[in-house]
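INFO  loader      accepted 1 record
INFO  loader      residues=634
INFO  predictor   begin
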Amino acid sequence: MISTSDFQNLKLETLKHFWGHTEFREQQEEVINEVLSGHDVVALLPTGGGKSVCYQLPALLLQGTCLVISPLLALMRDQVNQLKSNGIEAEYLSSELEDFQSEIIFSRCRDNITKLLYVSPERLNNPVFLENIRDIELSFIAVDEAHCISEWGQDFRPSYQNIRSFRAAYPGLACLALTATATPKVLKEITDRLELKNASIYRKSFRRENIKIYTDKIADKYQRIYDLLRFTKNAGLIYTRTRREAEELTRFLRSKNITHVDYYHAGLSLKEKRLRQQHWLQSRDQVLVSTNAFGMGIDKDSVRFVIHYSCPASLENYFQEIGRAGRDGLESYAFLLWNEQEFDAFDQLIKYQTPDKREFQVIVTYLYSLFQIADNDLPEKTFQLHIDTLRRLTKSSTGKIRNILNFMHNQELIYVNSHKSLSSLELKLLPDEIDQLPKKDAYFLELLLRNLAGISARKVMFSEANLSSKMGVDTLLLKERIRELQAGGHLEYIDGALASIKFLQHRNDRLLASKYWQLFYQIQKNKLQKWEEMKFYVRNREHCKMRMILSYFGEKKPVNCGKCVVCESRKGHSPKSVTDEILTVLGRQACTADEIAIQLNFYEKEKILEQLILLLDAGKVKMLNFRTYALAQH
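INFO  predictor   done
INFO  writer      dumping tokens
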């Protein structure tokens, strides 16, 4: 039998070998020990607390496969790729995989090769999955983003309640529930709904001593971000709400010679996303302007600042995102830029994106009718999804349609692929039938057969750009000819540059109108409440920002941080010391009030202006123009 000291060494050696760390972070080892002892446990570790190691390391030490339940396909894919790059056997199951690919994964689990198997909570109801998992030895269950089980969580996923019934078939199998953001009410729901037995609860304080929080009410956000980036050569993140904002802000900054900046969003191809992600991870000073598509599962210690160009939709999202700064414990900054006009605009956007019951039913009905799917039908093929066509038919806004599609995707009623990927092509004719077609069509099909091996037998993934180059044909002309043959029923074609949709469950109008409408309504109601809480937090100038966050997440008797925008405003810096610091900054170069404020550890602009007026009166400072100050010449 292995001794306690040897087991301790084994844990540390595993940590160093696969993750490169020589010691555990706070509470990591305690959680790991509970899992290794076969106990139920809840780990509430804020972003940067190392949640994933809490289940990945014991999965390597225990016999069998750890079943990881995760809500997002993109997150599963990223984590599996990261684990494989570290030399750890891991796989994920999703609706995008072909049957033969899933069977290979099940086989590797049965042979005890795969140590971590990632699945969505919806898959726990899948008959094929349930049949195959019976033959696999499970080491324990890890429930990632466990707050999704709570109706009061910011990402309520009813399918998380499938976990309880799944666990009933495995009495005695330990369960580890992990989350970065959970209020006391949500935490209680996690333990109750997962039916955790005598679960130990490990909580790490949400307090981040090294992060200074600033909420700036400001009109010209571009200028403010430009000023911030001019005076830093550190890595950072800038979060925007939309893809367009990310691209336009990046273009503006580059036009101002801020070259160490790039954008990232879900509209990029998988290859491009990986390249930009890797460049940012490896760079000392790269700044990434991103939608919230970037961040989950990403671990970079030296992020010195996080800027929110757009206000997040909830305090949970906000805290997760600012938690990506300063994971090395060094001083870091979180800036949130806002104004009332933007808040009003987002209020309107929520209304624009939220359908009532009638609109919900109209959009869902047309979605099925568009592809001629009758009640109880389930087509096998994948369809091209044209949002504009659906918008014209339903006379609804694009926002409402996307909201419903996202909901149905999360419930695994449908699978929507909206990111750029390879296209697919399959021949619907027998090769000997091609000669019966008009010469022009027959010749083109023969070219396809020669250049795309396998299309006569199965669906083939390909790139139009590569194919057009091989065939010596213009890409647009190639697509046009393929679509003509598709219209004639000779080919099955899905354009990877456009969205596609696959229906995963039989159409059931009764359930859609009752159960799924109620779920959708509850989720929209939660979103609205979270947004109101977020606005209150941002507008409040009476209470310490960190203290408000700690209170929201249920920490008892939180104290002021002493360094956020509210605490700084109450300190009352010595006028003499501020004056001296201003003169030191202007001694290096002429600056605006904003630039001085940034270089003086982000003092409030109002305080800087007060001292500049005194210095102007004393003749120590002069104005070069209506914005720029310089030392007076004596």
